[in-house]
Amino acid sequence: MLQWRLLRLSLITMCLLCPLTSAQLDRQELVALAKIVRTMGATLNSSVDPCESTTLDISDSKPGLDQNKVLCNCHPNSSTCHITILYSFLLSLSSLSLLRLVTQKIVLKMYSLPGTLPPQLVDLPYLEELDLTRNYLEGTLPKEWATMKFLRSISLAANRITGEIPREWGSFTNLTSLSLEANRLSGNIPAELGNLVSLTMLILSSNKFVGNLPEKLAAMKNLTDFRISGNNFSGSIPQFIGNWTRLKRL
What we know:
Blueprint: E1 5-15, E2 24-25, H1 27-39, E3 44-46, E4 56-58, E5 69-73, E6 80-92, E7 96-98, E8 105-107, E9 129-131, E10 153-155, E11 162-163, E12 177-179, E13 184-187, E14 201-203, E15 208-211, E16 225-227, E17 232-233
Parallel strand pairs: 1-5, 2-6, 8-9, 9-10, 10-12, 11-13, 12-14, 13-15, 14-16, 15-17
Antiparallel strand pairs: 1-6, 3-4, 6-7
């Protein structure tokens, strides 16, 4: 049985080009946010000027509790603000859960969103962290996300994502954390994943991956947390794992 829930969002934005008094949120980014939320199975409504105590409502929300704000934090000599921070509350009939607030981050954790992963995230290019853990999101991993050069952490754990890890994701050279556990992902681990030498955490547990771990993963020497149980990998544990001297959890 679905519970009534309120998703409260506050977007703290950073500006780039003109006086503080005339700075406005980039309209394209606001449109992109609406598309992203819609793709994940909810609805976003906003007032005309998102920088003046506006409200953002995501359905379904409990009547009378939809008080959400967009905050514009713009630097002097700026005219355009860009979405960098979003924080969320989940309020249900039985619980109140405060989700973490960190700079340049999207957290939509445990909202039972039924849609698909939104390729439109590329239209929010300043994002550093994405957490969509424990929803009902389906579809495949968007290869388009690989162009988001500021992303440092991705958590898509406990959804219904299918398909393979895109080879394009080997371009996430600034990524330090990637969690894809408890989905329905399959196929081989792409060798390109070995390009993610900044990773400290890689969690692929409880999927349907097959084959051997590619030798190129040997370059991931910064890993401290590496979990791959609950898959259908073949062969023995690669010797290169013994060279991961920082590894604390396997």
